[in-house]
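Dig into this one:

. . .
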Amino acid sequence: MTEHLRSQKNQKKKAFKPIFIIVPIILLLVAGAGFIIHVTAEKKQQQRIALVEDFTRYLAQGKYESLPKTLLADTAQRNGYSNKEIIEKYQNIFTAIDAKNIKMTNLKITEQKDNKYQVTYELSLATAMGQLKNLKYQTYLAYEKEQPKLEWGPNMIFPQMSGKDKVSLTVDEPVRGEILDRNNQPLAENGQLQQLGVVPQKLGEGTEKEKNIKKIATDYNLTEKQITQALEQSWVKPDYFVPLKIVDEAKGLPTGASIKEITGRKYPLGAAAAHLVGYLGKITAEDLKKHPELTSEGQIGRAGLEAAYDETLRGKAGGKLAITDEKGNEKTVLLENTKQDGKTVQLTIDSTLQELAYHALAEKSGATVVNAPKTGDLLALVSSPSYDPNKMTNGISQKDYDAYEKDEKKPFLNRLVTGYAPGSTFKTITAAIGLDNGSLNPNEKLAINGLKWQQDSSWGDYYVTRVADVASVDLKDALVYSDNIYMAQETLKMGEKAFRSGLDKFIFGEKMDLPLAMNPAQISNEKSFDSKILLADTGYGQGQLLINPIQQATMYSVFANEGTLVYPKLVTDAKEKEKTAVVKSSSVEKVNEDLKAVVSDPNGTAHSLSSLGFTLFAKTGTAEIKEKQDERGQENSFLLAYEGKNSGYLFISMLENRQDNESATQLAPNVLQYLHDHYE
């Protein structure tokens, strides 16, 4: 009996073993099925997200004809529209408001009953009236032939729309502020422009249309492609005026062409003030990212003062973006702004002088700066050669732009803010520092033999050279003859520490408080000179000195102010700023005495200016740029001129890469005469 019971227990144990094997298998199968279901659900959710993203992407790209393929087949009809009408409604509204930078955020898709899903998201976009932010949309998503599709209604255009609502846009553009000179003469103004355009229905059809387009393109320096692209814009209708370009004059209008007078930006001085005033360009998507307050229509400053003072000049657009019912009754205002006209910016510039100084450079590469050394007022800021800002603002042809780009004289280069070695004009500063620290005795004669010199044999094959072989030289001789060897020796005598100490009183390393981008003036690439040669070269205005013409004029202001440096000022209401005791007045007096002789002495390098018939203080300079000492390099010619310690002006001009028998001095007389007549 006992064995029989034991046998039954053993049989029961064996009967339960398969259950422990089957259960884990079932659990694994259930888990696997759950995983598959999860993956499938995730994939379907991604499909639903992709659908909404497709819809908003078509809006952003203006591909309105693609919208219906994201929608349920009967959704248009159920809302009183056809697919064609949906496409046209988006196209008409989004084109009219100039919708750009359309971005979707906060997309949520949640499951509802009967395999439907609620879709919510937010859109932000730029319009001709400004930025619309975080518009909240809600719709539904359902499956059609196993593909997700969106329910559409007018609220998918703007959330507040329903039925046959429309969108109304009125824009009140601000008047851009003008840029005036010191005498209230315009440097940038708003004036009447002639806009060339075409009226599509007047061009004819077929070969006649092609012939007329070709004639317009030929007569007005356009390409046929430019005209056809303009005609293909979505808003164009047969009787509309389609603008092409701003023209100076109508040349006898070909068939289909028309002229319309519009208000636009004009630059009376043209190329003469382009690098100073700058120009405008159309507002781009990139501009809207940086400046959300802008409207997508209009222009923005692209260079010069138009860019630096753009916010002040442009003002703020006004107008209203609203939703109306089918009859035009206003329902909801989406955006409304009050127009604020731009403010006028008045400069210290004398436009007559500006134009005179530009033409004096005769399209040669160079720059001229004139300031009033007592106040810092900048009277003229000229960079040559230049470009026409009227063309840049109102539509430059590719041919004209390419001509500027390929011009080896680089008309787009602003030489006013480009650093140069100042050459021998800088000897005035070296002399003043030496006089201040007592290392330079103005009456001491240095014996110099020949046209080249080196301190010792450690200089190898490097020599300092000069032009005039004068055996015995003092400070006056050195400035009259512009003797590099004298200045090199005097700089070495005072030493780097004393020389740098004097230079540090000027504006080296300082940022200028001007609305013009420029690098600070530099003494050398490193904080100290790496050789005696570099120290010597710096003393006569070469080495690694980099000073732009505006900075040069600022530094030289000490000689018209008994040692006080006056900072430049370009806007009339800017505060005057100065730095006193940069140089001792006694040192200034001595330098001025010698610079007077540079003009009056028959041996002086600026003696030709004596023919003007009034007393001038001047210093010429030539900075040579070359790889090797025994070769001829590019030479930049400089002239510094003013009328002594009480001068009402200070003139600095630079001629880049001067040719034989050319100099900045030769180009200056007409400008100096004007300055004498009006500022002295």
